[in-house]
Amino acid sequence: MERGGKGGDTINQRIQQPEAEMGIREMEISGHKLIIHERDDSSDPSTGRALTGSWLWDAAIHLAEWMAADGGPHLAGATVLELGAGTGLPGLLAAAMGAARVVLTDVAPLLPGLRASAEANGLGSRVEVRELRWGSGEQAVAEADVVLMSDVFYDPEEMGGLASAMRAAWGESTTGWAASEVRPGVGECLEALRREGFEVVEVEERVRPLLRAEGETSVFAVYRIRRA
Asked: What InterPro entries does this protein map onto (predicted)?
C-alpha cells in the first residue's frame, strides 16, 4: 500500500488490552498520534463469523503512510469519505491532517469501534460515523472531495456494490485513493471497477513488513481512482 518514496516514514505501535473485547492500538504517523480501537466481539449477524474489519490491517497503515508523505493527497479543508473503513485509520488521519469533514462508513457491528476511535482522538466534531452496506441505496453517502479505501479489493463480485457507493460520492473533482496488498484476485477487482466506469491507476508499490506476521513481508500498492 505504500509508495516506494515513503520508506523513511516512522510508525510507532503499542497494543494495550484494557478489557477482553476491546484493544487500543496507539499509532504515530509522520508526527500525527492516533488511537485506534480494535474490537474482538464484532461479528456478522447473518453468519456469526467475526468481521475482519474489527482489526487494523496493513493496507490501512500503508494508505495512511502514503497520505502523510510528500506527494500525498491535499486534505486541508477537504470533505473526505472512507468506504469500508474498518478501524478508520486513513479517515482519522485525514481529519488530523486538516480535513474539514470526514465520514467513516462500514457495516453496523463496526460502528462502535469507529465512534470510540473518533472520540479518543478528539475528532468527534469533524468525524461522522455512518452505516453503509454497498449497493443498499447509499443513503449515507454525500459528495466528497476525497474517497479513501483500503483492503476492499477481495471479491470481484462485490465491486458492483462498491462502484454504486463510489458513484453516490463522486463529484466532478472527486479523487479516490485505495490501498491493497498485491495478491490474487486484486487485478480482477480493478478490472471490474474499470468496467463500472472508473479509471484506476497504480501510483506506488512497495514491500513492507506485515503487522501480524513477525519477520514476514508482502507487496502493497496505492491506486488513484477517477471517473473515466
From this structure: Methyltransf_16, SAM-dependent_MTases_sf
